[in-house]
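Repro case for the chain-ordering regression, as requested:
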Amino acid sequence: MLSAEKLTKTYPGRPPAHALRGVTAAVSAGEIVGVVGESGSGKSTLARIWAGLDDATGGAATLHQRPVADWLARDRLGFHRRVQYVFQDPVESLNPRLAIREQLATPLRLLRGLPPADARDAVGELLAQVGLKAEHADRHPHAFSGGQAQRIAIARALAARPEVVICDEAVSALDVSVQADILDLLRELRASHGLAYLFITHDLAVAAEFCQRLIVLKSGEIVEQGAANTVLANPQTDYTRTLRDSVFSL
Amino acid sequence: MLPYLVRRLLLLIPILLGVSLVVFLLMALIPGDTAQAILGPFANEENLTALRAEMALDRPLPAQYAAWLGNILQGDLGTAHSLSRPVADEVFERLGATLLLAGTAFLLTCLLGLGAGAIMALRQSTWVDRTLTFAVLAGISTPSFALGLVLVLLFAVWLPWFPASGLYSVTGDGGAPDLLAHLALPALTLTLVTSAIVARLMRGQMLEVLRQDFVRTARAQGLPERTVLFGHAFRNALVPMIPVLALQAGYLLGGAVYVETIFAWPGIGRAIVAAISTRDVLLAQGCILVVAAGYVVLNLAADVLQRWLDPRLDR
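-- result from build under test --
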Protein backbone atom coordinates (compact mmCIF):
# COMPACT_ATOMS: atom_id res chain seq x y z
CA MET A 1 0.00 0.00 0.00
CA LEU A 2 2.58 2.58 1.16
CA SER A 3 6.02 2.11 -0.29
CA ALA A 4 9.33 3.91 -0.51
CA GLU A 5 11.91 3.19 -3.18
CA LYS A 6 15.47 4.48 -2.65
CA LEU A 7 14.04 7.49 -0.84
CA THR A 8 16.49 10.30 -0.04
CA LYS A 9 16.03 13.57 1.80
CA THR A 10 18.75 16.16 2.12
CA TYR A 11 18.31 19.44 3.96
CA PRO A 12 20.45 22.21 2.49
CA GLY A 13 23.18 23.69 4.67
CA ARG A 14 26.91 23.65 5.18
CA PRO A 15 27.37 20.76 5.27
CA PRO A 16 24.01 19.46 3.94
CA ALA A 17 22.12 17.19 6.34
CA HIS A 18 21.25 13.80 4.87
CA ALA A 19 18.09 12.79 6.72
CA LEU A 20 17.32 9.80 4.51
CA ARG A 21 19.79 7.87 2.32
CA GLY A 22 18.15 5.45 -0.12
CA VAL A 23 15.41 4.06 2.10
CA THR A 24 13.37 1.24 0.58
CA ALA A 25 10.43 0.03 2.68
CA ALA A 26 6.72 -0.74 2.51
CA VAL A 27 3.58 -0.96 4.64
CA SER A 28 0.94 -3.46 3.58
CA ALA A 29 -2.79 -3.21 4.24
CA GLY A 30 -3.70 -3.96 7.86
CA GLU A 31 -0.08 -4.25 8.92
CA ILE A 32 1.60 -2.58 11.92
CA VAL A 33 5.06 -1.47 10.94
CA GLY A 34 7.32 0.13 13.52
CA VAL A 35 10.13 2.50 12.58
CA VAL A 36 12.73 2.66 15.34
CA GLY A 37 16.05 4.37 15.78
CA GLU A 38 17.78 6.99 17.84
CA SER A 39 17.01 10.74 17.55
CA GLY A 40 18.05 12.12 14.16
CA SER A 41 17.92 8.73 12.47
CA GLY A 42 15.28 9.95 9.96
CA LYS A 43 12.18 8.26 11.38
CA SER A 44 9.97 11.36 11.37
CA THR A 45 11.31 12.50 8.00
CA LEU A 46 10.22 9.19 6.47
CA ALA A 47 6.81 9.55 8.12
CA ARG A 48 6.37 13.13 6.92
CA ILE A 49 7.28 12.24 3.33
CA TRP A 50 4.84 9.32 3.34
CA ALA A 51 2.17 11.63 4.78
CA GLY A 52 2.77 14.25 2.08
CA LEU A 53 3.95 16.83 4.63
CA ASP A 54 7.47 16.98 3.20
CA ASP A 55 9.06 16.39 -0.21
CA ALA A 56 11.70 13.78 -0.91
CA THR A 57 14.94 14.91 -2.52
CA GLY A 58 15.20 11.67 -4.52
CA GLY A 59 13.58 8.27 -4.95
CA ALA A 60 9.86 7.59 -4.82
CA ALA A 61 7.25 7.53 -2.07
CA THR A 62 4.03 5.93 -3.30
CA LEU A 63 0.56 5.04 -2.13
CA HIS A 64 -1.04 2.21 -4.12
CA GLN A 65 1.83 2.42 -6.66
CA ARG A 66 1.06 6.09 -7.32
CA PRO A 67 3.59 8.78 -6.25
CA VAL A 68 2.50 10.78 -3.20
CA ALA A 69 3.28 14.01 -5.07
CA ASP A 70 0.92 12.94 -7.86
CA TRP A 71 -1.83 12.18 -5.34
CA LEU A 72 -1.39 15.60 -3.77
CA ALA A 73 -1.42 17.38 -7.12
CA ARG A 74 -4.43 15.54 -8.58
CA ASP A 75 -6.42 14.10 -5.69
CA ARG A 76 -5.28 15.71 -2.46
CA LEU A 77 -8.45 14.86 -0.57
CA GLY A 78 -8.35 11.30 -1.87
CA PHE A 79 -4.83 10.96 -0.47
CA HIS A 80 -5.74 12.36 2.94
CA ARG A 81 -8.84 10.15 2.97
CA ARG A 82 -6.46 7.17 2.84
CA VAL A 83 -3.51 8.41 4.93
CA GLN A 84 -3.88 10.16 8.28
CA TYR A 85 -1.33 11.35 10.82
CA VAL A 86 -1.21 11.44 14.63
CA PHE A 87 1.45 13.67 16.19
CA GLN A 88 3.52 13.26 19.34
CA ASP A 89 2.09 16.10 21.42
CA PRO A 90 -1.66 15.55 21.51
CA VAL A 91 -2.60 18.92 23.01
CA GLU A 92 -0.36 20.89 20.66
CA SER A 93 -1.77 19.04 17.67
CA LEU A 94 -5.26 20.42 18.37
CA ASN A 95 -6.14 24.01 17.49
CA PRO A 96 -6.36 25.72 20.92
CA ARG A 97 -9.09 28.12 19.82
CA LEU A 98 -11.54 25.63 18.39
CA ALA A 99 -13.95 23.38 20.28
CA ILE A 100 -13.46 19.65 19.72
CA ARG A 101 -16.75 19.39 17.83
CA GLU A 102 -15.47 21.80 15.21
CA GLN A 103 -12.09 20.07 14.95
CA LEU A 104 -13.70 16.66 14.41
CA ALA A 105 -16.49 17.91 12.16
CA THR A 106 -13.98 19.39 9.69
CA PRO A 107 -12.56 16.05 8.42
CA LEU A 108 -16.03 14.50 8.49
CA ARG A 109 -17.22 17.28 6.21
CA LEU A 110 -14.14 17.60 4.07
CA LEU A 111 -13.01 14.00 3.71
CA ARG A 112 -16.22 12.03 4.22
CA GLY A 113 -18.43 14.58 2.46
CA LEU A 114 -21.01 14.76 5.26
CA PRO A 115 -23.31 17.81 5.27
CA PRO A 116 -22.31 20.27 8.07
CA ALA A 117 -25.26 19.36 10.34
CA ASP A 118 -24.65 15.61 9.96
CA ALA A 119 -20.92 16.10 10.53
CA ARG A 120 -21.57 17.88 13.81
CA ASP A 121 -23.95 15.10 14.88
CA ALA A 122 -21.44 12.39 13.93
CA VAL A 123 -18.82 13.84 16.27
CA GLY A 124 -20.45 12.11 19.26
CA GLU A 125 -20.15 8.68 17.59
CA LEU A 126 -16.54 9.37 16.74
CA LEU A 127 -15.76 10.29 20.36
CA ALA A 128 -17.53 7.13 21.57
CA GLN A 129 -15.26 5.04 19.35
CA VAL A 130 -12.22 6.34 21.21
CA GLY A 131 -13.80 5.99 24.66
CA LEU A 132 -14.88 9.59 25.21
CA LYS A 133 -18.33 11.03 25.83
CA ALA A 134 -20.42 13.12 23.46
CA GLU A 135 -20.45 16.04 25.90
CA HIS A 136 -16.67 16.33 25.51
CA ALA A 137 -17.32 17.74 22.04
CA ASP A 138 -18.07 21.23 23.27
CA ARG A 139 -14.87 21.61 25.28
CA HIS A 140 -11.60 23.09 24.10
CA PRO A 141 -8.29 21.16 23.94
CA HIS A 142 -6.83 22.64 27.13
CA ALA A 143 -9.64 21.01 29.12
CA PHE A 144 -8.29 17.50 28.42
CA SER A 145 -5.45 15.41 29.82
CA GLY A 146 -2.70 14.21 27.48
CA GLY A 147 -4.29 10.78 27.13
CA GLN A 148 -7.74 12.20 26.40
CA ALA A 149 -6.27 14.65 23.89
CA GLN A 150 -4.49 11.80 22.11
CA ARG A 151 -7.79 9.92 21.93
CA ILE A 152 -9.29 13.00 20.29
CA ALA A 153 -6.36 13.19 17.85
CA ILE A 154 -6.95 9.52 16.99
CA ALA A 155 -10.68 10.19 16.58
CA ARG A 156 -9.83 12.99 14.19
CA ALA A 157 -7.62 10.67 12.16
CA LEU A 158 -10.41 8.03 12.14
CA ALA A 159 -12.95 10.56 10.87
CA ALA A 160 -11.51 10.14 7.38
CA ARG A 161 -11.88 6.32 7.57
CA PRO A 162 -8.27 5.98 6.45
CA GLU A 163 -6.43 2.88 5.29
CA VAL A 164 -3.25 3.77 7.17
CA VAL A 165 -2.57 5.96 10.18
CA ILE A 166 0.95 7.28 10.68
CA CYS A 167 1.60 7.57 14.42
CA ASP A 168 4.65 9.79 14.92
CA GLU A 169 5.80 9.14 18.52
CA ALA A 170 2.08 9.08 19.32
CA VAL A 171 2.49 7.62 22.81
CA SER A 172 5.91 9.04 23.70
CA ALA A 173 4.54 12.06 25.56
CA LEU A 174 2.16 9.96 27.68
CA ASP A 175 2.50 8.23 31.06
CA VAL A 176 3.17 4.50 30.90
CA SER A 177 -0.37 3.55 32.02
CA VAL A 178 -1.92 5.94 29.51
CA GLN A 179 0.44 4.58 26.83
CA ALA A 180 -0.97 1.11 27.44
CA ASP A 181 -4.55 2.41 27.16
CA ILE A 182 -3.81 4.16 23.87
CA LEU A 183 -2.05 1.10 22.45
CA ASP A 184 -5.06 -1.04 23.41
CA LEU A 185 -7.33 1.50 21.72
CA LEU A 186 -5.19 1.43 18.55
CA ARG A 187 -5.38 -2.38 18.51
CA GLU A 188 -9.19 -2.32 18.91
CA LEU A 189 -9.54 0.24 16.13
CA ARG A 190 -7.32 -1.82 13.85
CA ALA A 191 -9.50 -4.84 14.47
CA SER A 192 -12.74 -2.95 13.85
CA HIS A 193 -11.60 -0.72 10.98
CA GLY A 194 -8.91 -2.85 9.31
CA LEU A 195 -6.33 -0.10 9.71
CA ALA A 196 -2.62 -0.27 9.00
CA TYR A 197 -0.24 1.68 11.23
CA LEU A 198 3.16 3.14 10.55
CA PHE A 199 4.37 3.46 14.12
CA ILE A 200 7.31 5.82 14.60
CA THR A 201 8.95 5.46 17.99
CA HIS A 202 12.28 5.70 19.73
CA ASP A 203 10.95 3.36 22.41
CA LEU A 204 11.87 -0.18 21.47
CA ALA A 205 9.84 -1.65 24.32
CA VAL A 206 6.66 -0.07 22.91
CA ALA A 207 7.60 -1.15 19.39
CA ALA A 208 8.21 -4.71 20.58
CA GLU A 209 4.80 -4.86 22.23
CA PHE A 210 2.80 -3.23 19.45
CA CYS A 211 4.41 -3.79 16.05
CA GLN A 212 4.36 -6.80 13.76
CA ARG A 213 7.30 -5.70 11.70
CA LEU A 214 10.21 -3.35 12.47
CA ILE A 215 12.36 -1.07 10.33
CA VAL A 216 15.54 0.02 12.13
CA LEU A 217 16.95 3.34 10.93
CA LYS A 218 20.40 4.75 11.62
CA SER A 219 21.61 8.06 10.20
CA GLY A 220 18.99 7.94 7.43
CA GLU A 221 19.69 4.36 6.35
CA ILE A 222 17.85 1.13 7.07
CA VAL A 223 20.21 -1.13 8.95
CA GLU A 224 17.71 -3.91 9.49
CA GLN A 225 14.06 -4.79 8.89
CA GLY A 226 11.88 -7.82 9.45
CA ALA A 227 9.35 -9.41 11.78
CA ALA A 228 9.50 -7.66 15.14
CA ASN A 229 10.10 -10.90 17.08
CA THR A 230 12.95 -11.90 14.79
CA VAL A 231 14.62 -8.48 14.77
CA LEU A 232 14.54 -8.27 18.55
CA ALA A 233 15.44 -11.89 19.24
CA ASN A 234 18.23 -12.10 16.73
CA PRO A 235 19.50 -8.64 15.75
CA GLN A 236 21.79 -8.62 12.74
CA THR A 237 23.66 -5.41 13.59
CA ASP A 238 25.42 -4.04 16.63
CA TYR A 239 23.27 -0.89 16.39
CA THR A 240 19.99 -2.86 16.77
CA ARG A 241 21.53 -4.97 19.51
CA THR A 242 22.58 -1.83 21.39
CA LEU A 243 19.11 -0.32 20.99
CA ARG A 244 17.50 -3.54 22.22
CA ASP A 245 19.90 -4.07 25.11
CA SER A 246 19.52 -0.48 26.29
CA VAL A 247 15.81 -1.16 26.81
CA PHE A 248 15.59 -4.79 27.81
CA SER A 249 18.55 -4.80 30.18
CA LEU A 250 16.70 -2.35 32.44
CA MET B 1 -16.11 35.25 31.61
CA LEU B 2 -18.75 37.40 33.34
CA PRO B 3 -17.07 37.32 36.79
CA TYR B 4 -13.78 38.26 35.10
CA LEU B 5 -15.43 41.17 33.32
CA VAL B 6 -17.05 42.42 36.54
CA ARG B 7 -13.72 42.10 38.38
CA ARG B 8 -11.88 44.03 35.69
CA LEU B 9 -14.56 46.73 35.58
CA LEU B 10 -14.33 47.15 39.36
CA LEU B 11 -10.56 47.34 39.06
CA LEU B 12 -11.04 50.25 36.66
CA ILE B 13 -12.16 52.45 39.56
CA PRO B 14 -8.82 52.52 41.48
CA ILE B 15 -6.89 52.64 38.19
CA LEU B 16 -8.80 55.69 36.96
CA LEU B 17 -8.45 57.32 40.38
CA GLY B 18 -4.69 56.74 40.19
CA VAL B 19 -4.64 58.14 36.66
CA SER B 20 -6.54 61.24 37.81
CA LEU B 21 -4.08 61.76 40.68
CA VAL B 22 -1.06 61.50 38.36
CA VAL B 23 -2.65 63.85 35.83
CA PHE B 24 -3.51 66.35 38.55
CA LEU B 25 -0.04 66.27 40.13
CA LEU B 26 1.64 66.45 36.73
CA MET B 27 0.15 69.87 36.10
CA ALA B 28 -0.08 71.10 39.70
CA LEU B 29 3.60 70.54 40.45
CA ILE B 30 4.93 72.41 37.42
CA PRO B 31 7.00 75.31 38.76
CA GLY B 32 5.61 78.82 38.31
CA ASP B 33 2.46 80.74 39.15
CA THR B 34 -0.57 79.67 37.15
CA ALA B 35 -2.50 82.83 37.97
CA GLN B 36 0.42 84.99 36.84
CA ALA B 37 0.69 82.99 33.59
CA ILE B 38 -2.99 83.54 32.87
CA LEU B 39 -3.21 87.23 33.77
CA GLY B 40 0.19 88.18 32.37
CA PRO B 41 3.25 89.89 33.80
CA PHE B 42 1.47 93.20 34.48
CA ALA B 43 -1.37 91.83 36.60
CA ASN B 44 -1.73 93.43 40.05
CA GLU B 45 -1.65 91.46 43.29
CA GLU B 46 -5.35 91.99 43.95
CA ASN B 47 -6.36 90.37 40.64
CA LEU B 48 -3.85 87.57 41.14
CA THR B 49 -5.22 86.84 44.62
CA ALA B 50 -8.79 86.84 43.32
CA LEU B 51 -7.94 84.42 40.50
CA ARG B 52 -6.02 82.11 42.87
CA ALA B 53 -9.09 82.01 45.11
CA GLU B 54 -11.43 81.42 42.16
CA MET B 55 -9.27 78.52 40.91
CA ALA B 56 -8.70 77.18 44.45
CA LEU B 57 -4.96 77.61 43.92
CA ASP B 58 -4.59 79.11 47.40
CA ARG B 59 -5.73 75.84 49.02
CA PRO B 60 -3.49 72.87 49.90
CA LEU B 61 -2.88 70.34 47.12
CA PRO B 62 -5.10 67.59 48.61
CA ALA B 63 -7.99 70.04 48.86
CA GLN B 64 -7.36 71.21 45.28
CA TYR B 65 -7.36 67.59 44.08
CA ALA B 66 -10.52 66.75 46.00
CA ALA B 67 -12.32 69.77 44.56
CA TRP B 68 -11.12 69.00 41.02
CA LEU B 69 -12.08 65.33 41.29
CA GLY B 70 -15.46 66.22 42.79
CA ASN B 71 -16.19 68.49 39.84
CA ILE B 72 -15.07 65.83 37.35
CA LEU B 73 -17.38 63.25 38.91
CA GLN B 74 -20.23 65.70 38.24
CA GLY B 75 -19.10 66.07 34.61
CA ASP B 76 -17.49 69.47 35.13
CA LEU B 77 -13.90 69.68 33.90
CA GLY B 78 -13.73 73.38 34.67
CA THR B 79 -13.26 76.36 32.36
CA ALA B 80 -10.39 76.78 29.92
CA HIS B 81 -9.07 80.26 30.74
CA SER B 82 -7.15 80.54 27.50
CA LEU B 83 -10.34 79.93 25.50
CA SER B 84 -13.01 81.20 27.91
CA ARG B 85 -15.13 78.11 27.35
CA PRO B 86 -15.84 74.93 29.31
CA VAL B 87 -12.99 72.41 29.15
CA ALA B 88 -15.47 69.58 28.49
CA ASP B 89 -16.78 71.30 25.34
CA GLU B 90 -13.27 71.89 24.04
CA VAL B 91 -12.07 68.36 24.89
CA PHE B 92 -14.98 66.58 23.26
CA GLU B 93 -14.85 68.77 20.16
CA ARG B 94 -11.15 68.01 19.80
CA LEU B 95 -11.65 64.35 20.66
CA GLY B 96 -13.71 63.84 17.49
CA ALA B 97 -10.81 65.03 15.30
CA THR B 98 -8.31 62.90 17.23
CA LEU B 99 -10.55 59.82 17.04
CA LEU B 100 -10.90 60.31 13.29
CA LEU B 101 -7.13 60.56 12.83
CA ALA B 102 -6.25 57.80 15.31
CA GLY B 103 -9.07 55.56 14.08
CA THR B 104 -7.97 55.89 10.46
CA ALA B 105 -4.34 55.26 11.38
CA PHE B 106 -5.37 52.28 13.52
CA LEU B 107 -7.37 50.65 10.72
CA LEU B 108 -4.48 51.17 8.31
CA THR B 109 -2.07 49.81 10.93
CA CYS B 110 -4.15 46.64 11.28
CA LEU B 111 -4.30 46.14 7.51
CA LEU B 112 -0.69 47.02 6.72
CA GLY B 113 1.02 45.80 9.89
CA LEU B 114 -0.78 42.49 10.28
CA GLY B 115 -0.80 41.88 6.53
CA ALA B 116 2.89 42.69 6.04
CA GLY B 117 3.87 40.65 9.10
CA ALA B 118 1.96 37.61 7.85
CA ILE B 119 3.44 37.94 4.35
CA MET B 120 6.96 38.26 5.78
CA ALA B 121 6.46 35.04 7.75
CA LEU B 122 4.96 33.15 4.82
CA ARG B 123 7.83 34.31 2.59
CA GLN B 124 10.51 33.89 5.25
CA SER B 125 14.09 34.40 4.02
CA THR B 126 13.00 35.42 0.50
CA TRP B 127 13.54 38.82 -1.12
CA VAL B 128 9.97 39.76 -0.09
CA ASP B 129 10.83 39.12 3.57
CA ARG B 130 14.14 40.98 3.32
CA THR B 131 12.63 44.00 1.55
CA LEU B 132 9.76 44.28 4.03
CA THR B 133 12.14 43.76 6.97
CA PHE B 134 14.23 46.68 5.73
CA ALA B 135 11.11 48.85 5.36
CA VAL B 136 9.91 47.81 8.82
CA LEU B 137 13.25 48.64 10.46
CA ALA B 138 13.23 52.02 8.71
CA GLY B 139 9.69 52.62 10.00
CA ILE B 140 10.57 51.64 13.57
CA SER B 141 13.74 53.74 13.59
CA THR B 142 12.21 56.94 12.22
CA PRO B 143 10.63 59.32 14.74
CA SER B 144 7.08 60.27 13.75
CA PHE B 145 7.84 64.01 13.70
CA ALA B 146 10.78 63.49 11.31
CA LEU B 147 8.69 61.22 9.07
CA GLY B 148 5.87 63.80 9.10
CA LEU B 149 8.21 66.55 7.97
CA VAL B 150 9.60 64.35 5.17
CA LEU B 151 6.08 63.53 3.97
CA VAL B 152 5.17 67.24 4.02
CA LEU B 153 8.24 67.99 1.93
CA LEU B 154 7.50 65.16 -0.52
CA PHE B 155 3.73 65.29 -0.89
CA ALA B 156 2.81 68.86 0.00
CA VAL B 157 5.79 70.92 -1.18
CA TRP B 158 7.59 69.08 -4.02
CA LEU B 159 4.51 67.18 -5.22
CA PRO B 160 1.57 69.34 -4.12
CA TRP B 161 -0.90 66.48 -3.90
CA PHE B 162 -2.09 66.92 -0.32
CA PRO B 163 -2.43 69.94 1.99
CA ALA B 164 0.11 70.06 4.82
CA SER B 165 -2.32 71.80 7.18
CA GLY B 166 -5.35 74.05 7.17
CA LEU B 167 -8.10 71.85 8.62
CA TYR B 168 -10.08 73.85 11.16
CA SER B 169 -12.91 71.42 11.88
CA VAL B 170 -13.76 67.87 10.91
CA THR B 171 -17.34 68.99 10.33
CA GLY B 172 -16.36 71.93 8.11
CA ASP B 173 -17.78 72.97 4.73
CA GLY B 174 -15.21 71.18 2.56
CA GLY B 175 -17.01 67.83 2.75
CA ALA B 176 -15.53 64.34 2.64
CA PRO B 177 -12.99 64.93 -0.20
CA ASP B 178 -11.47 67.92 1.62
CA LEU B 179 -11.40 66.00 4.91
CA LEU B 180 -9.73 62.97 3.29
CA ALA B 181 -7.14 65.19 1.60
CA HIS B 182 -6.25 66.75 4.96
CA LEU B 183 -6.33 63.36 6.67
CA ALA B 184 -3.95 61.66 4.22
CA LEU B 185 -0.53 62.87 5.39
CA PRO B 186 -1.04 62.83 9.19
CA ALA B 187 -2.73 59.41 9.02
CA LEU B 188 0.06 58.07 6.82
CA THR B 189 2.72 59.41 9.19
CA LEU B 190 1.16 57.69 12.19
CA THR B 191 0.41 54.50 10.24
CA LEU B 192 3.93 53.98 8.93
CA VAL B 193 5.43 54.04 12.41
CA THR B 194 2.83 51.89 14.18
CA SER B 195 2.38 49.40 11.35
CA ALA B 196 6.15 48.83 11.28
CA ILE B 197 6.06 47.79 14.95
CA VAL B 198 2.97 45.61 14.42
CA ALA B 199 4.47 43.97 11.30
CA ARG B 200 7.70 43.12 13.13
CA LEU B 201 5.85 41.42 15.98
CA MET B 202 3.27 39.76 13.74
CA ARG B 203 6.04 38.17 11.67
CA GLY B 204 7.42 36.53 14.83
CA GLN B 205 3.99 35.38 16.01
CA MET B 206 3.09 33.95 12.63
CA LEU B 207 6.40 32.09 12.33
CA GLU B 208 5.88 30.59 15.77
CA VAL B 209 2.33 29.47 14.97
CA LEU B 210 3.30 28.06 11.57
CA ARG B 211 5.74 25.71 13.33
CA GLN B 212 3.11 24.40 15.73
CA ASP B 213 1.71 20.91 15.43
CA PHE B 214 -1.90 21.94 14.97
CA VAL B 215 -0.98 23.74 11.74
CA ARG B 216 0.84 20.63 10.48
CA THR B 217 -2.17 18.59 11.59
CA ALA B 218 -4.49 20.83 9.58
CA ARG B 219 -2.29 20.17 6.53
CA ALA B 220 -2.16 16.44 7.28
CA GLN B 221 -5.96 16.44 7.41
CA GLY B 222 -6.05 17.71 3.85
CA LEU B 223 -7.41 21.19 4.56
CA PRO B 224 -6.83 23.63 1.68
CA GLU B 225 -3.66 25.68 2.20
CA ARG B 226 -5.67 28.91 2.34
CA THR B 227 -7.77 27.51 5.21
CA VAL B 228 -4.61 26.31 7.00
CA LEU B 229 -2.95 29.72 6.71
CA PHE B 230 -5.90 32.00 7.41
CA GLY B 231 -8.35 29.81 9.34
CA HIS B 232 -5.76 28.28 11.65
CA ALA B 233 -2.36 30.02 11.56
CA PHE B 234 -3.36 33.68 11.08
CA ARG B 235 -6.22 33.59 13.58
CA ASN B 236 -4.05 32.02 16.26
CA ALA B 237 -1.20 34.45 15.60
CA LEU B 238 -3.68 37.29 15.94
CA VAL B 239 -4.60 36.56 19.57
CA PRO B 240 -1.24 37.57 21.14
CA MET B 241 -1.24 40.63 18.87
CA ILE B 242 -4.36 42.09 20.52
CA PRO B 243 -2.51 43.72 23.46
CA VAL B 244 0.09 45.02 21.00
CA LEU B 245 -2.65 46.57 18.88
CA ALA B 246 -4.25 48.07 22.00
CA LEU B 247 -0.93 49.66 22.98
CA GLN B 248 -0.59 51.08 19.47
CA ALA B 249 -4.15 52.40 19.64
CA GLY B 250 -3.25 54.08 22.94
CA TYR B 251 -0.14 55.55 21.35
CA LEU B 252 -2.21 56.85 18.45
CA LEU B 253 -4.71 58.40 20.84
CA GLY B 254 -2.15 60.21 22.97
CA GLY B 255 1.06 59.98 21.01
CA ALA B 256 -0.37 61.81 18.03
CA VAL B 257 0.71 65.03 19.77
CA TYR B 258 3.72 65.63 17.48
CA VAL B 259 1.83 64.71 14.35
CA GLU B 260 -1.18 66.86 15.22
CA THR B 261 1.17 69.75 15.86
CA ILE B 262 3.14 69.30 12.61
CA PHE B 263 -0.02 69.06 10.50
CA ALA B 264 -2.00 71.59 12.60
CA TRP B 265 -4.66 68.91 13.13
CA PRO B 266 -7.40 70.29 15.41
CA GLY B 267 -7.20 67.35 17.78
CA ILE B 268 -6.62 66.72 21.45
CA GLY B 269 -2.84 66.39 21.11
CA ARG B 270 -2.53 69.86 19.69
CA ALA B 271 -4.87 71.15 22.41
CA ILE B 272 -2.52 69.70 25.06
CA VAL B 273 0.48 71.49 23.51
CA ALA B 274 -1.48 74.75 23.35
CA ALA B 275 -2.77 74.36 26.91
CA ILE B 276 0.72 73.73 28.30
CA SER B 277 2.24 76.66 26.40
CA THR B 278 -0.51 79.01 27.72
CA ARG B 279 -0.43 77.29 31.13
CA ASP B 280 -4.11 76.48 30.89
CA VAL B 281 -3.93 73.90 33.66
CA LEU B 282 -7.55 72.78 33.62
CA LEU B 283 -7.57 72.32 29.84
CA ALA B 284 -4.31 70.35 29.93
CA GLN B 285 -5.58 68.21 32.83
CA GLY B 286 -8.89 67.57 31.06
CA CYS B 287 -7.23 66.58 27.78
CA ILE B 288 -4.63 64.33 29.40
CA LEU B 289 -7.25 62.73 31.65
CA VAL B 290 -9.46 61.82 28.69
CA VAL B 291 -6.51 60.40 26.73
CA ALA B 292 -5.28 58.42 29.77
CA ALA B 293 -8.78 57.09 30.49
CA GLY B 294 -9.09 56.07 26.84
CA TYR B 295 -5.78 54.23 27.12
CA VAL B 296 -6.96 52.33 30.21
CA VAL B 297 -10.29 51.41 28.61
CA LEU B 298 -8.55 50.26 25.40
CA ASN B 299 -6.31 47.94 27.38
CA LEU B 300 -9.26 46.55 29.30
CA ALA B 301 -11.09 45.93 26.02
CA ALA B 302 -7.99 44.19 24.64
CA ASP B 303 -7.72 41.92 27.70
CA VAL B 304 -11.38 40.96 27.50
CA LEU B 305 -11.20 40.37 23.74
CA GLN B 306 -8.06 38.25 24.08
CA ARG B 307 -9.64 36.18 26.80
CA TRP B 308 -12.77 35.70 24.72
CA LEU B 309 -10.80 34.61 21.67
CA ASP B 310 -8.39 32.31 23.50
CA PRO B 311 -10.26 29.85 25.76
CA ARG B 312 -6.96 28.81 27.40
CA LEU B 313 -6.84 32.16 29.20
CA ASP B 314 -10.32 31.71 30.67
CA ARG B 315 -9.23 29.34 33.42
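Ordering looks correct now. The domain at 2-200+211-248 of chain A is CATH 3.40.50.300 (Rossmann fold).
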